[in-house]
């Protein structure tokens, strides 16, 4: 550990939870929120995907964050900005044109969240040795993705409870939905602000501003070097294709699964309530996800990434068959539905680590590791964003049954590619170019 005065357990779990929360709320929770407020599926899928674009383009401004203050400063600042943004969305929901205003405010939260990711990844690499980076990757991945379970589990469940409470008080369905989602957005606001205040005290600094990037022209020059060196990396074409294909299936189902679970049985869905969706995601699903993330770290560290890559792809993608089965059978059994979701989330948590490590160990190493990892994760998010943007239109055209069947066909190429994807660096080795910058990082 480079900075032994601050234990990583004081900030790694909470900071990466704070990294995951805005991403998940924008990408998934808002899908259910807008659905409950009467927006059609195609508009929801399109615009909640478009606002995720900052996570794809974040490498463009990553060099400029080296010009000012410390990495801790940007981490705390963006957490506070995201919190305020969620608070403003809570009030915007009551406006006549609430959808457009909310989307605009959520786009600001997205920009803040993407900037937060750059700064926190840089802080993580600056503060921890390579050994500690590997040691805490399980914690990092688990708590980043635990935000997904808290948001889609606890927050969605509470939205359903609040709706029932407001209905019991005499509110109609639309008023109950509006009031409950207002409370949820305010809860997101409070949570992000509290995390920002906590990290103002607990985070290490991550180092001062770079001596190499002092002006805008320095930043532009550094950006050009980052882009040029990224696209001249060995096997980079194969790596970009692999990154895109790895999460292709997830990108298609991410927006549609919550809509499918909530849709009426007569419309091909399962007809679940917000409480049921939140319960399935937020209890056993949360435990399964965290368990999968932690076990994957030990699994890969024992056998190596190259030997385990195909199995990780299988564990990540094959559980999407659960939703194909659900769409065709439309089961009513609580145990069957809950068990299927738990199975899928365990696979998601386990398999996600494989792509994270691949980007760390094969794509990012070199002088500009932080920016190159941001570039790689941006490409990954572009894949998820583009598939998510069109998923609503495809689902509307094909229906849930055929949609999930097509998704399973779409994941076949990544299985094929796993058999011949080249490894630039053997397991356990990374480029030493730019000593002190070739670190492990996760998204």
Can you walk through the features of this model?
This protein is an all-alpha fold and 443 residues long. Helices cover 74% and strands 0% of the residues. Helix 1 packs antiparallel against helix 2, helix 7 (137-168) packs antiparallel against helix 8 (173-202) and helix 10 (236-246) packs across helix 17 (369-410).
Work out the number of β strands. Answer: 0
> What are the low-pLDDT stretches, counting only 5+ consecutive residues below 50?
430-443
CATH level 3 topology: Growth Hormone, Chain: A
CATH superfamily: MFS general substrate transporter like domains
Q: In the CATH classification, which architecture applies? A: Up-down Bundle
Total domain count:
1
Briefly note the structural class of the backbone.
Answer: mainly alpha
How far do the termini sit from each other? 20 Å
Relative strand content? under 5%
Q: What percent of the residues sit in helical stretches (DSSP H or I)?
A: over 70%
Figure out the total of helices. 18
The H/E string reads HHHHHHHHHHHHHHHHHH
Biggest sheet overview: none
Mean pLDDT: 84
Radius of gyration: 21 Å
Overall 3D form: globular
The CATH class turns out to be Mainly Alpha
